[in-house]
Specification:
The protein is of the alpha+beta class. Helix content is about 25%, strand content about 30%. The strands form four sheets. The chain has a seven-stranded mixed sheet. A two-stranded antiparallel ribbon has the order 4-7. The protein has a two-stranded antiparallel sheet with strand order 10-11. The longest helix has 16 residues. The protein is elongated, with a radius of gyration of 22 Å.
């Protein structure tokens, strides 16, 4: 499960995301333990009042209810044996679960603002914009949803895999592949209407590719 950096009162946490009905229903249930600086962020497609329960939990939790701008709306704690749960007083865009004692240790207060890294903030805004979970990317000021189709490996071609081992593209041997960084650069200049800069970037990237030493992968 991918983890995203989140700064809470000057302390860095790594948090997983729950942004689909399936991941939100599962939450942290049955997890043996939760690291001191770890957590799970529930992201909803619109602010709602939520009732959180301790289903099959092996550790106690603090709950931080947030609006869409990462401002703290409400704080709470539950023990692993709790049966009643906790309900948000206000419609919340996100809820962060962290080890119990975190709120007291860091002195987190209502109206404090958490500081996500850019990728985590993009994920939260993407869920709210597209009204569903997924993987999102920000180019300029616009957020795009990255869709991965069911792609069948083609014989004689190279396959690009995601972190789950799924094929996301078939590539002809010797084909030129633009990196994510270069793709962002090109799209950014195109959207700004910087024609000269766009041409210069493409030529510079192609020139780099032409002069790059091939890197071959040997069969095991």
């Amino acid at each position: 499960m991918k983890l995203y950096p989140l700064n809470i009162k000057g302390t860095k946490f790594d948090v997983a995301i729950a942004d689909t009905p399936e991941t939100q229903a599962k939450g942290l249930s049955d997890l043996p333990r939760l690291g001191k600086r770890k957590g799970m962020l529930f992201i909803f497609d619109a602010p709602i009042r939520v009732h959180m329960v301790m289903r099959s939990m092996n550790f106690d939790l603090d709950f931080i209810f947030l609006d869409e701008n990462w401002r703290v709306l409400q704080l709470g704690s539950l023990s692993k044996e709790d049966k009643a749960g906790i309900t948000s007083f206000y419609p919340s865009a996100m809820i962060l679960e962290v080890p119990k004692g975190t709120i007291a240790e860091l002195g987190i207060l209502k109206n404090d603002t958490l500081a996500p890294d850019q990728q985590l903030d993009t994920q939260s805004k993407g869920v709210q914009q597209f009204k569903e979970g997924g993987t999102f990317e920000k180019v300029g000021e616009k957020i795009y949803k990255i869709k991965i189709d069911d792609i069948v490996p083609e014989k004689g071609k190279l396959q690009i895999l995601n972190d789950k081992g799924e094929v996301v593209a078939n590539v002809e041997p010797g084909a030129t592949i633009f990196s994510q960084e270069h793709t962002k650069e090109i799209i950014g200049k195109f959207k700004k209407g910087d024609t000269n800069g766009l041409v210069e970037s493409i030529l510079a990237i192609l020139d780099k590719h032409e002069n790059q030493k091939p890197d071959y992968v040997k069969k095991p």
